Amino acid sequence: MNCIIIDDEQTARAIISQLCSDTNDLNVVEEFSNALQAIKYLNQHEIDLIFLDIHMPDFTGFDFIETLKKPPKIILTTSDDHFAIQAFEYECIVDYLLKPLTLKRFEKAIQKVVDTDKTLNKNNSLQNIETNSGHDLYVNIDRRLIKIDVQEICLVEAKGDYINIKTETNNFRVHSSLKKIKEKLPDYLFVKVHRSFIINIEKIIDIEDNSVLINKDVIPVSRSNRSNLMKRLNLL
Amino acid sequence: MEQPNISYIQNMSGGDKNFEKKLIGIIKSEFPIEMQVYFNSMKIKNFDDASEIVHKIKHKISILGLDESYKNAIAFEHGLREGDIALQVKFETTLMIITDYLKNFE
Question: Which of A10, A39, A130, A152 lies 20 to 30 A from A205 at CA?
Answer without folding.
Answer: A130
